[in-house]
Design brief:
With 111 residues, the protein is α+β, with helices and mostly antiparallel strands. The protein is built from two helices and three strands, in the order βαββα. Helix content is 37%, strand content 14%. This is Peptide chain release factor H.
């Protein structure tokens, strides 16, 4: 389906390790001379992305940061969905016990 994603800028640069490397594919001398591709790894979760679609390293870093934020959001949504499903299943597995009946008054005769 179609989802809406708003880029979170709360991911700090110290939470992500960036590695630069040479891009692959067509591009001629520019590709052979510059390290414009970026591999970004989120240190806390281990999520890693490689971006080489842009000519600029800065643009690739920005895109890598957005992709990591998107994957973290997807992971959070999956965890919430699993928790919601678990709660729903738990709700249907509840067994009702024998309730205690307490009678008050003079007309009560135990059997």
């Amino acid at each position: 389906g179609i989802g809406r994603f708003s880029a979170d800028e709360h991911i700090q640069s110290d939470e992500i390790r960036f590695e630069t490397l040479r891009s692959s594919g067509p591009g001629g001398q520019h590709v052979n001379k510059t390290d414009s591709a970026v591999r970004a790894t989120h240190l806390a979760s281990g999520i890693s992305v490689k971006v080489q679609s842009e000519r600029s390293q800065h643009a690739n870093k920005r895109l890598a940061r957005l992709l990591i934020a998107w994957r973290l959001e997807q992971q959070r949504q999956n965890e919430c969905a699993a928790l919601k499903s678990e709660r729903r299943l738990f709700h249907h597995q509840i067994e009702r016990g024998n309730p205690l009946r307490i009678f008050k008054g003079m007309a009560f005769t135990p059997q």
